[in-house]
Design goal:
The chain is mainly beta and 198 residues long. It is built from 2 helices and 14 strands. Strands 5, 7, 8, 9, 11, 13 and 14 form a 7-stranded antiparallel beta sheet that branches. The protein has a 3-stranded antiparallel beta sheet with strand order 6-12-10, with no helix packed on it. A two-stranded antiparallel sheet has the order 1-2. It starts with a helix and ends in an 11-residue tail after the last strand. The protein binds zinc ion (ZN). The site of zinc ion (ZN) has 4 residues, from loops.
Length: 198
């Protein structure tokens, strides 16, 4: 096949998706994965669970087994507010692991969460949120890429956690198209957390 014909095979597909009344144009180069990308647009919502399951997310607190986890995602906190996270009780100073590999998007201090980490997954579709930390792991900085199982911090009670009950407040946010660390839809991590071992 002539090179010119090869170049002609690079086709731009424009697919227009109506999301919440806003039309979004997506262009990509045709390749063997183009079909998958195209399909993902339609089945994205359905596949989120499958995607998270395939990551084999690590239980983020050292020494905590699957059996010890409690699903308190849908409980109410402070009146009417839904918790939208898991609380994993542990002694102050217990290592906190990255549940998955990816970039540290934000280290945020202050507010109800206290000392927190917002970590994206490698595809930057989800944000993992770790709160009430006592401290960050030494050398942890925004922008660095961590591996699944890396120690990123230590359990504490910063923010609005009771000082006598240190725990990790952990949740997953499905990121929007703009991939902002502070915006997303809370997703219950409970079904997806697997092994405590690294
Ligand atoms: Zn909590």
């Amino acid at each position: 096949m002539p090179r010119t014909a090869k170049a002609a095979l690079i086709v731009l597909l424009i697919s227009t998706l109506a999301v919440a009344g806003v039309a979004t144009a997506v262009a990509f180069r045709e390749s063997p994965s183009a079909t998958a990308v195209n399909r993902a647009g339609k089945s994205e919502r359905r596949d989120d669970g499958g995607l998270l399951a395939s990551r084999r997310l690590l239980i983020p607190v050292d020494g905590v087994s699957r059996e010890q986890l409690r699903d308190n995602f849908a409980e109410t906190r402070g009146g009417k507010r839904r918790h939208d996270a898991l609380d994993i009780m542990a002694a102050r100073g217990t290592p906190v692991f990255a549940v998955d590999g990816g970039r540290v998007a934000k280290l945020f201090r202050g507010g109800a969460g206290g000392l927190t980490i917002h970590q994206f997954d490698s595809a930057e579709q989800f944000a993992y949120y770790y709160a009430h930390l006592d401290s960050y792991a030494r050398g942890l900085v925004e922008g660095m890429v961590v591996k699944r199982g890396d120690i990123i911090g230590y359990v504490g009670s910063t923010g609005n956690a009771p000082s006598h009950a240190p725990h990790l407040h952990f949740t997953i946010f499905k990121l929007g198209a703009d991939r902002k660390w502070w915006k997303g839809t809370a997703t219950n991590p409970y079904p997806y957390l697997t092994e405590a071992k690294r």
